[in-house]
Amino acid sequence: MVTISGGVISKQNNTSITYRLKCEKCGHEDESESTVTVTVGLTEVTSKKCPNCGNRQIIKMKISMN
Ligand SMILES: [Zn+2]
Predict the structure, then answer these.
(1) Which of 5, 42, 46, 2 is nearest to 22 (CA)?
(2) 31-58 pLDDT, tens per residue?
(3) Contact assessment for residue 8 and residue 57, using Cβ atoms and an 8 Å cutoff
(4) Contact 45, 12 (CB under 8 A)
């Protein structure tokens, strides 16, 4: 099970998850994608600058058992 804030998942399979920034300030969804390997227990925290409004958006993703 994957939970994400500050971003949206665009692709997901058994081995990898691809996500994009979704700015919480202006709602912009970025076109550039990031991919992480599926690891149960992984918590991924990254920050990206929104190209639309300049907000530095924190993206938090957690992968846990169902
Ligand atoms: Zn924005």
Answers:
(1) 5
(2) 999 999 999 999 999 999 999 999 999 9
(3) no
(4) no
- Residue 8's nearest CA partner among 24, 29, 32 is 29
pTM for this prediction: 0.88
Total residues belonging to the chain? 66
Whether residue 4 has pLDDT greater than 90: yes
Here the tokens at position 54 are 């300049």
Q: For residue 31, report the distance from its CA to the centre of ligand 1, in Å.
A: 13
20 C-alpha to ligand 1 centroid (Å): 13
